[in-house]
């Protein structure tokens, strides 16, 4: 499990959902002074995933409007990880 923090972008290589790797968003949420229950209930408004060619990017928007800034770049996982639902269904995000 990799703990992510607000205000930065971690570049992560060898991320593998099938092996149980996960990104922990609790610090990002706390550092943004957001209520964990609100974010959890509306996760897609705060967190998005984007195929960035060879990489996949995880974005966090503290305003809850989608978009925001990248908090993680997953090296060599573009096209393999293309959306939030794919990550959450594999337990690859921890936020509660």
Query: Helix count?
Result: 4
What's the helix-strand series? EEEHHHEEEHE
For the record, give the distance between the C-alpha atoms at the N and C termini, rounded to a whole number. Answer: 13 Å
Largest sheet composition: 4 strands, mixed
* Radius of gyration, taken over Cα atoms and rounded to an integer in Å: 12 Å
Helix content: 10-25%
Strand content: 25-35%
User: Order of strands across the biggest sheet?
Assistant: 2-6-5-4
Please identify the structural class as seen in this structure: alpha/beta
Outline? globular
Which regions have little confidence, pLDDT < 50, spanning 5+ residues? none
Count all strands and give the number.
7
Strands, helices and their partners?
Blueprint: E1 2-3, E2 10-12, E3 23-24, H1 26-31, H2 36-41, H3 43-46, E4 47-52, E5 55-60, E6 69-74, H4 84-89, E7 93-94
Parallel strand pairs: 1-3, 2-6, 3-7
Antiparallel strand pairs: 4-5, 5-6
Mind explaining what this structure looks like?
The protein is α/β, with parallel strands linked by helices and 96 residues long. The chain contains four helices and seven strands. The protein has helices at 26-31, 36-41, 43-46, 84-89; strands at residues 2-3, 10-12, 23-24, 47-52, 55-60, 69-74, 93-94. The protein has a four-stranded mixed β-sheet with strand order 2-6-5-4. It has a three-stranded parallel β-sheet with strand order 1-3-7. The longest helix is centred in the N-terminal third of the chain and has 6 residues, at 26-31. The mean pLDDT is 93.
């Amino acid at each position: 499990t990799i703990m992510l923090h607000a205000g930065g972008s971690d570049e992560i290589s060898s991320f593998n959902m099938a092996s149980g790797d996960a990104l922990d968003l609790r610090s990002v949420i706390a550092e943004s002074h957001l209520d964990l229950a609100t974010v959890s209930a509306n996760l897609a408004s705060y967190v998005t995933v984007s195929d960035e060619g060879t990489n996949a990017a995880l974005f966090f928007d503290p305003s809850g409007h989608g978009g925001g800034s990248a908090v993680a770049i997953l090296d060599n996982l573009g096209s393999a990880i293309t959306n939030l639902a794919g990550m959450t269904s594999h337990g690859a995000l921890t936020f509660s």
